[in-house]
Amino acid sequence: MKRDEHIDHEGVIVDINTEFITVEILSSSACGSCAAKGACSLGEVETKVVEVANSGYSNFSPGEKVNVLLKKSLGHKALYISYLIPLLILVAILLSLSSAGAGDLLTGLAILGGLAIYYTVVYLFRDRFRKEYIFTIEKLN
Predict the structure, then answer these.
(1) pLDDT at 120
(2) Over the stretch 24-42, which tens digit does the pLDDT of each residue have?
(3) Which residues, at least 6 apart from 45, have a Cβ–Cβ distance to it below 8 Å?
């Protein structure tokens, strides 16, 4: 796999079962120099747990250090879904209701309602996103 096509983070395998390998992402100072740090929230937290589908990873064991990989294009898509689209919804509602002369309370409530509807739709499609966002792991060299 080409390194420039993937976002990767070092982690430790916590658990292995028939369906998933659970990997805990380690926070490191290397996140500050990562080219994909703007599209990735893993650098902002101390630990993050990721479930990787267990298909053909029989040579891994709990406690082993691995790299967790995700395609950069999916990282950018996640950025759009989680930040850009909600911002556009917020701005569209704010500008349309403000120009229509609606009060601040109504505008604020409409923004909250619009974002609640958007995140409910995202939540309802969570299984589809789970199938699309496929993490892979590889042994550290």
Answers:
(1) 97
(2) 887 655 555 565 665 565 5
(3) 27
Q: How far is Cα of residue 25 from the mean position of the Cα atoms in its chain?
A: 13
Q: Residue 24 — φ and ψ, nearest 5°? A: -100, 120
| Residue extents of the structural domains in the chain | 3-139
pTM, to two decimals: 0.62
Count of beta carbons in the 10 Å neighbourhood of residue 11: 25
Over residues 71-126, the pLDDT tens digits come to 877 778 888 999 999 999 999 999 999 999 989 999 999 999 999 999 999 999 98
Residues across the chain: 141
Written as one string, the DSSP assignment of the chain is: --GGGEEEEEEEEEEE-SSEEEEEEEP-GGGGG-TTGGG-SGGGSSEEEEEEE-SS-TT--TT-EEEEEEEHHHHHHHHIIIIIHHHHHHHHHHHHHHHTT--HHHHHHHHHHHHHHHHHHHHHTHHHHHHHS--EEEE--
